[in-house]
Amino acid sequence: xxxxxxxxxxxxxxxxxxxxxxxxxxxxxxxxxxxxxxxxxxxxxxxxxxxxxxxxxxxxxxxxxxxxxxxxxxxxxxxxxxxxxxxxxxxxxxxxxxxxxxxxxxxxxxxxxxxxxxxxxxxxxxxxxxxxxxxxxxxxxxxxxxxxxxxxxxxxxxxxxxxxxxxxxxxxxxxxxxxxxxxxxxxxxxxxxxxxxxxxxxxx
Length: 204
Prior knowledge:
The chain is an alpha/beta fold. It folds into two domains: 6-17 and 87-201, 3-Layer(aba) Sandwich (Rossmann fold), CATH 3.40.50.1000; 20-83, Putative phosphatase, domain 2 (DNA polymerase, domain 1, Orthogonal Bundle). The chain is built from nine helices and nine strands. The strands form three sheets. The protein has a five-stranded parallel β-sheet with strand order 7-6-1-8-9. A two-stranded antiparallel ribbon has the order 2-5. Strand 8 (170-174), helix 9 (177-185) and strand 9 (189-192) form a beta-alpha-beta unit. It is globular, with a radius of gyration of 17 Å.
């Protein structure tokens, strides 16, 4: 196995603590009891895929969500519930990342959307006390900006090609097995990071 020179990190479940139950509970409270039919960590309705690929705007998402769920929720209610899964950053993991970037070329690859992105940046400022999360990486890749998302092969290939990475020298770390399987199939080294294990437990 080749020595690792590059690391591509996932965001949610790796540096950002998530709790999908929070979002489910809030939507139930707001009158969408079957939210699991639309979105889980491992499955997303096409509406959420469109949002994560930047194919629809936040307002278009809110309107489509109301139609899909046959509800009259306000934009703010949908936003609050949708952001409920985003919990916090752990400063120790960010400190760890700052040390790791001294030894590796590091990148971020996150399936996200503009609604979540705005909240994530606010949480980073709140929890870490720093302004710019993105400066930690040579380049962060966000699905809604790339117009590509995991686990599709072309999303990984886009990063590999743009950064001219050798796959055998590149490690991908993610908490979702489908993403790990796709990266592995392309020849990337992989680590499936499953809670309660965190990056602080990795031997890099």
